[in-house]
Specification:
By secondary structure, chain A is of the alpha+beta class. In chain A, 26% of the residues lie in helices and 35% in strands. Chain A has four domains: 30-130, Immunoglobulin-like; 160-282 and 302-330, no CATH class; 353-462, Immunoglobulin-like (Sandwich), CATH 2.60.40; 537-647, Up-down Bundle (Four Helix Bundle (Hemerythrin (Met), subunit A)), CATH 1.20.120. Chain A is built from nine helices and 32 strands. In chain B, 60% of the residues lie in helices and 13% in strands. In chain B, α2 runs antiparallel to α3 (46-58), α3 (46-58) packs antiparallel against α4 (64-76) and α4 (64-76) packs antiparallel against α5 (80-93). The chains are: A alpha+beta, B alpha+beta. At the A-B interface, α5 of A face α2, α3, α4, α6 and α8 of B.
């Protein structure tokens, strides 16, 4: 009996191997889009995967636009080989975690890839977005397309100890399922610092032959997650719970880095199982405590027609029972990092790190470029590291760093390195110092901050051959500086403001002073001249009378010529002074005009002219009597007195 | 011994005199220092070139190309605040210079949050153009000359009866008007050049406070190179207003007044 069974086992494995070879040779190119859930609520994230299987020579890979969705995570790339259902395939996949923005049904178009020169497209996916109702989420088991690495094929290799798929008579199916299939989440810690690593393992425990698929994967809100690749198909391990052996399948193992402090919850995972139970029909032949064939009931080979034929016995009946299970949500308490002693260069790194910083050359010309590499390696949230602050001196042009990751696959805790590569273009000749680069991290083991520091770099820069000739071009987008002025100039220090210097005011006042002086002088002169005339005018009478007195003396002495001369002079002088006529200009006509202008007419004027005539006649024809002289004298006195009166008003 | 000492003293004196004369010679030829700074710039030693220009500026030389070149050197050396300051100074000496405007615009591109000032209204532009007709001292000198002419005209009109005619009188009126214009221009150019009510922020990421007090809360942040108007000042703090209307208080030491 035992021997025969062994032979069967051999035949079975040979057949399996054959099948595998056949499958492997028939590799076909497949490009598929799969989503973790095609019906979601508004604030429920889901995963979308574009998987290209068996594609060699991938030239481009363009994901579609997710215009109605928000990309929470991704794209994350996956690449590798998988053996799935005995089929070996090479795959390349892009994963996104999306969150819908609105309610409705949306079609996400397929991704495009160019493989071996041909453009291929993956299938579009219809996503139905329902109104958000976070509590009442009911996953839709139908249409589920489990992501291959998460699919566990229960029952594949259950050993005989665990195979308990026989439903005994009178046994309650639900009770049996509950006892024998359950999910468990294991976390290595529930109390940790922000940024520290946490490993969550989702496990399926089973004692029954099942065909399971994961219908809902946790979203890990508030965490940065990194999955550990699990063997595909899943390898079962054995674990004993209360002395009962269970087959354990690891559904998901994820490294989690909390991004915020507080109490965070790990969402449950949901698994749909199809449990194949075996019923023994009553009229079967009696079996011993242990049926040697029972182990085969759990075998996939069961379905094989060859075995079917062999074992198809009337007393055995199968029943496929659907059974949906859910793990318990787990609460994680995340502490925020201590504020005390936090270095200024701290940038969120938690773990244990080493840093190296190197420059590729110490001396170069301005034509050349310099590369500064900062490599941070160690354990911790390597995938979340930010570039340490780099103070590049102003003589360099700095570009955004190129970031390269080298993370060890499936390392736990996450181990690897991240490299920041800065390209620096020297702008200025001379010696420049790049200050020491500082990197700080929080060590959760030591519970303290640690700071790493590189050496400062001294860089010698020489002038390159290429002297940049800035052009005069004011066109739009011409971002070149116009070159410097190099002419010869007049160098005057401290510009003097003429307007605030005293000279300005002196020079403004000077013409005013000159003008004032001129005006004063003119005024003085005018005053003097007018004053003299005035005096003469005022004293004309007295002068005339004095002259007449002299004339009276000549009259007594009988000097007629002198008498007439003096009288004439008295009258003329009087007129000259009184009428302000220069002596030389005196004429009878002018006097007449002047007197007429003053409205002095009649006897006075005629007497005056008569007197003047008399005097003239007497002067040029002497020999007149004393009486006449006396008359002339008295006449002259009267006329002057009369004129004085007339001219006064 | 004493002779030795004397010789030493003489040598020392000679050295001092020599050094002094060299120093004086250096002082005396700013053009050569300017050229040296230019060649430093050409060799891409921008920081050194900027320092050399700055020395000339500090000595009181006020020249458009000097400020302009200093602006370029500071720009290349990455000191946006100083670059903007020097370009603005150059622009004050030569308003409307397209080259300066171009480079200033480039420097302002590095100032994040920079808001363009409103362009001048056409008559303001005319006024500015008119001001460019003479140098500030030219307006003052013209003022004096015109005043002399006006006074001379008045004197002629008054004292020489033979000169008295309406042409001279109208000429005098015209000269008087011109004199008034020149005087206003001279005063205005002086006022504009000595208006220190605006400045450039010379330190990056300066916090602007809501009150003139170190402990008051931050209102906003200004970037290096931002042009600000100073509307009020206490001993340590200056009240600034930005082109977009924001106001706040900043330590006066962070502003370089134009």
């Amino acid at each position: 009996m035992k021997d025969r069974f062994n032979i069967k086992k051999y035949i079975f494995s040979i057949l399996c191997c054959l099948g595998l070879v056949v499958c492997a040779s028939a590799q076909e190119l497949r490009f598929t889009t799969s989503v973790s859930s095609s019906a979601v609520t508004v604030d429920e994230p889901f995963q979308i995967q574009f998987m290209l299987e068996n594609g060699t020579n991938i030239a481009s890979f363009t994901p579609p636009s997710f215009k109605d969705f928000e990309v929470l995570q991704g794209p994350s790339q996956m690449q590798g080989q998988s053996i799935f259902n005995g089929r070996r395939s090479e795959y390349f996949a892009l994963n996104y975690v999306l969150q819908p923005k609105h309610v409705g049904s949306f079609t996400i178009p397929g991704a495009q890839a160019r493989v071996n020169g041909n453009v291929i497209k993956s299938n579009p996916v219809l996503i139905e977005v329902r109104k958000g109702n976070a509590q009442a989420q009911t996953p839709q088991p139908s249409q589920q397309q489990a992501i291959p690495q998460h699919r566990s094929q229960g029952g594949n290799g259950l050993s005989e100890d665990v195979s308990d798929g026989v439903l005994k008579k009178g046994e309650d199916i639900q009770e049996k399922l509950r006892k024998n299939i359950f999910l468990k989440v294991e976390v290595d810690k529930t109390n940790l610092y922000e940024g520290d690593q946490l490993t969550a393992t989702y496990k399926l425990y089973t004692r029954l032959p099942t065909n399971s698929s994961v219908t809902k994967v946790p979203a890990f809100k508030g965490f940065s997650a990194k999955d550990i690749e699990l063997p595909n198909p899943p390898q079962a391990t054995e674990e004993r719970i209360n002395g009962v052996p269970f087959k354990v399948f690891t559904i998901r193992k994820t490294l989690l880095f909390p991004l915020q402090s507080g109490t965070l919850e790990l969402d449950p995972v949901e698994v749909d199982n199809q449990v194949r139970l075996v019923k023994l029909v009553s009229n079967k032949r009696s079996r011993g405590g242990k049926d040697p064939f029972e182990e085969f009931f759990n075998d996939p080979a069961f379905k094989d027609p060859f075995f079917d034929d062999f074992f198809n016995r009337p007393e055995v009946e199968y029943q496929d029972v659907p059974y949906k299970i859910q793990s318990n949500p787990i609460k994680i308490n995340v502490k925020s990092l201590p504020v005390d002693g936090r270095p200024s260069s701290f940038n969120g790194a938690v773990g244990h790190f080493k840093m190296t910083a190197t420059v590729d050359k110490k001396s170069l010309s301005t034509d050349d470029a310099l590369t500064l590499k900062i490599n941070i390696s160690g354990q911790g949230n390597v995938n979340l590291l930010n570039s340490p602050k780099v103070d590049i001196p102003s003589g360099f042009e700095k570009y955004d760093p190129k970031v390269t990751d080298d993370i060890e696959k499936n390392s736990n805790p996450l181990t690897g390195s991240r490299q920041f590569e800065y390209v620096l273009m020297p702008q200025e000749a001379g010696q420049h110092t790049i200050p020491a680069i500082e990197f700080s991290y929080f060590d959760p083991v030591a519970n303290s901050y640690k700071t790493l520091r590189s050496e400062p770099f001294v860089i010698d820069i020489t002038q390159g051959k290429r002297i940049r000739q800035d052009k005069h071009d004011f066109g739009v987008g011409k971002n070149e500086l116009v070159k410097i002025d190099g002419g010869i100039y007049k160098w005057t220090q401290n510009r003097q403001w003429l307007i605030v210097s005293p000279w300005f005011y002196v020079l403004l006042l000077l013409p005013l002073l000159i003008a004032a002086a001129l005006i004063y002088y003119k005024h003085r002169k005018d005053y003097n001249t007018t004053n003299a005339a005035l005096l003469k005018h005022r004293y004309a009478n007295k002068v005339a009378l004095k002259r007449l007195e002299l004339a009276a003396r000549y009259l007594k002495e009988g000097k007629d010529k002198a008498f007439y001369e003096e009288t004439s002079r008295a009258v003329w002088g009087y007129l000259s002074h009184k009428l302000k006529i220069p002596f030389a200009d005196l004429s009878k006509q002018l006097i007449q005009d002047k007197l007429a202008a003053r409205h002095i007419n009649g006897t006075n004027t005629s007497d005056l002219f008569e007197l003047i005539d008399n005097c003239e006649v007497a002067l040029y024809a002497p020999g007149s009597g004393n009486d006449r002289m006396q008359g002339t004298y008295s006449k002259a006195v009267i006329i002057i007195t009369n004129l004085e009166d007339a001219l006064k008003n | 011994m004493s002779i030795h000492k004397n010789i030493k003293a003489v040598f020392f004196l000679l050295a001092v005199v020599l050094m002094g004369s060299i120093a004086q010679a250096q002082q005396a030829i700013p053009q050569q220092r300017f050229d040296a700074a230019n060649s430093l710039y050409q060799q891409s030693k921008f920081t050194d070139a900027a320092a050399a220009y700055q020395q000339l500026i500090d000595e009181g030389f006020e020249l458009k190309p000097l400020y302009y070149n200093a602006g370029n050197a500071y720009y290349k050396a990455g000191k946006t605040g100083e670059a903007v300051y020097n370009y603005e100074k150059a622009l004050q000496l030569a308003p409307g210079d397209e080259t300066i405007k171009h480079n200033l615009a480039l420097a302002n591109q590095k100032v994040s949050g920079y808001v363009d000032e409103l362009p001048l209204v056409f008559f303001q532009q005319w006024w500015q153009q008119l001001q460019l007709l003479h140098k500030p001292n030219g307006w003052a000198a013209g003022c004096i000359v015109l005043f002399w002419l006006v006074i001379a005209g008045i004197m002629l009109n008054r004292f020489l009866p033979g000169w008295k005619n309406k042409f001279l009188r109208w000429g005098n009126y015209a000269l008087g008007t011109l004199f008034a214009l020149y005087l206003i221009m001279a005063i205005d150019t002086y006022a504009v050049a000595n208006d220190h009510q605006s400045g450039i922020i010379i330190q990056g990421n300066t916090k602007v406070k809501s009150a003139p007090d170190d402990n008051s809360k931050d209102a906003f942040e200004v970037q290096e190179g931002m042009k600000v108007h100073i509307s009020d000042a206490t001993k340590d703090f200056c009240k600034i207003s930005l082109a977009d209307g924001k106001t706040g208080w900043v330590s006066c030491g962070l502003i370089k007044r134009l």
